[in-house]
Amino acid sequence: MKSGLSLSLAACATAVVLMLVSCKPGEQQPPAKPPVDTPRAPSIHERPISAKAKAVVDAARERTRLGERYDPSYFTIGFPGGDVPNDRGVCSDVVVRAYRAIGLDLQVLVHDDMSRAFNAYPKMWGLTRTDKNIDHRRVPNLRTFFTRRGASLPVTASPGDYRPGDLVTWTLPRNLPHIGIVSDRVAPGTDRPLILHNIGAGTSEDDVLFAYPITGHYRYYPDGA
Predict the structure, then answer these.
(1) Residue 110, class by beta-carbon neighbours within 10 Å (0-12 exposed, 13-18 middle, 19+ buried)?
(2) 52 three-state secondary structure
(3) Half-sphere exposure (CA, 13 Å, Cβ side) for 69?
(4) Are residues 84 and 93 in contact, defined by beta-carbon separation less than 8 angstroms?
(5) How many CB atoms lie within 10 A of CB 156?
(6) Does a cis peptide bond (omega within 30 degrees of 0) precede residue 80?
(7) Among residues 5, 93, 101, 137, which is most buried (max CB within 10 A)?
(8) Residue-wise pLDDT tens for the chain (225 aa)?
(9) Which of 52, 81, 43, 49 is nearest to 186 (CA)?
(10) Are strands 88-89 and 69-70 parallel, antiparallel or unpaired?
(11) Which CATH superfamily includes the segment(s) 50-218?
(12) Domain ranges of the chain
């Protein structure tokens, strides 16, 4: 009996050792069945980004690598395709420059729309006619243009509603208007997208989506995103 018991115990011990060896990393095993779970909505960084939205986001992110400074000065610039000096700009310049990466010149688009419907645009600067140098660089004008083009979307408190390449506007302290581009990256540990913008120290990518009161949400890809 003792001899038989010893053999049985030895066989069991050998089986246990073989089981442990066979589970070492790098050795192939039959795939385990995935646990049954309820479907969940993908986080924002798992959602697809269209080619045009990616081009806009990438162009804006490229600006973060420059030694750019915030400069709200008035400049006389060319038309079309006019731009302020490349080493400076304001929040709206981030958007204007990024959209040129997909062949959309907001300088021309805003000017043409204002020329057709000047009275539809804000009267905050005492102007009586369009100004190709500055109209497209003013956030209230951009908001009006995007709304008139049917690009306005609901403002919500849900991070997932803000897709990469979307535009968001805010009111900053001292009642200053601001605009930025929704990034395809999120704040660590959250589903809250970062924002590509220039808020005073050059273009940067920051966790500010809900830091200030949101005044507008836009998705402008007239030929499809």
Answers:
(1) buried
(2) helix
(3) 2
(4) yes
(5) 11
(6) yes
(7) 137
(8) 444 434 343 443 333 333 322 332 233 333 333 333 333 334 445 457 899 999 999 999 999 999 899 999 999 999 999 999 999 999 999 999 999 999 999 999 999 999 999 999 999 999 999 999 999 999 999 999 999 999 999 999 999 999 999 999 999 999 999 999 999 999 999 999 999 999 999 999 999 999 999 999 999 999 876
(9) 43
(10) parallel
(11) endopeptidase domain like (from Nostoc punctiforme) (3.90.1720.10)
(12) 50-218
Read off the tokens for 6.
């010893």
The angle formed by the CA atoms of residues 203, 209 and 214, to the nearest 5 degrees, is: 110
Among 91, 192, 199, 95, which Cα is nearest to 151's? 95
Query: What does the alpha-carbon distance between residue 182 and residue 217 come to, in Å, rounded to a whole number?
Result: 10
Eight-state DSSP code of residue 99: H
Residue 217: enclosing H or E segment and its boundaries? strand 214-218
Q: Which residue stretches of 34-150 are H helix?
A: 51-63, 91-99, 106-116, 139-148
Element (H or E) spanning 69, and its range? Answer: strand 69-70
**Tokens in use for 153?**
């979307």
